[in-house]
């Protein structure tokens, strides 16, 4: 395959240029947050209502609440294996392990929440999604 599908902008990019292209998406902004995050293609994202889905998390260490971007929520609801290394904390200006973050709506620990979603996914499909 000459082209590869970019997981950030969902365009077909020549394989030869892809690492350059990808680096642009991953370049850090001045606040430490990545320019963009890997998401599912808009048509593959969760299309339903987000009512009842937690959207803000607090980092008790600094006390700051961060809102999760909607395109990320709609992506992980379909594929809970997409993220997991941690989430960005606006208070600390860096990524924090999920085990240190708590949803403000439910009080649930984010690592536990992700584990639950992954468990439901593998129960439904038999295995985690293939990595590309
Ligand atoms: Zn791209
Ligand atoms: Zn923090």
Write the layout of secondary structure elements.
Layout: E1 3-5, E2 12-14, H1 18-26, E3 56-59, E4 64-67, H2 70-76, E5 87-89, E6 94-96, E7 102-103, H3 110-125
The chain binds zinc ion (2 copies).
Keywords:
132 residues; alpha+beta; 2 domains; 3-stranded antiparallel β-sheet; two-stranded antiparallel ribbon; 3 helices; binds zinc ion
Detailed description of the structure:
With 132 residues, the chain is α+β, with helices and mostly antiparallel strands. The protein folds into 2 domains: 1-36; 40-132, no CATH class. It is 24% helix and 17% strand. It is built from 3 helices and 7 strands; from the N terminus they run E-E-H-E-E-H-E-E-E-H. It has helices at residues 18-26, 70-76, 110-125, and strands spanning 3-5, 12-14, 56-59, 64-67, 87-89, 94-96, 102-103. Strands 4-3-7 form a 3-stranded antiparallel sheet, with no helix packed on it. It has a two-stranded antiparallel ribbon with strand order 1-2. The chain has a two-stranded antiparallel ribbon with strand order 5-6. Strand 3 (56-59) and strand 4 (64-67) form a beta hairpin. Residues 6, 8-9, 11, 21, 25 line the site of one zinc ion. One zinc ion binds at residues 6, 8-9, 11, 21, 25.
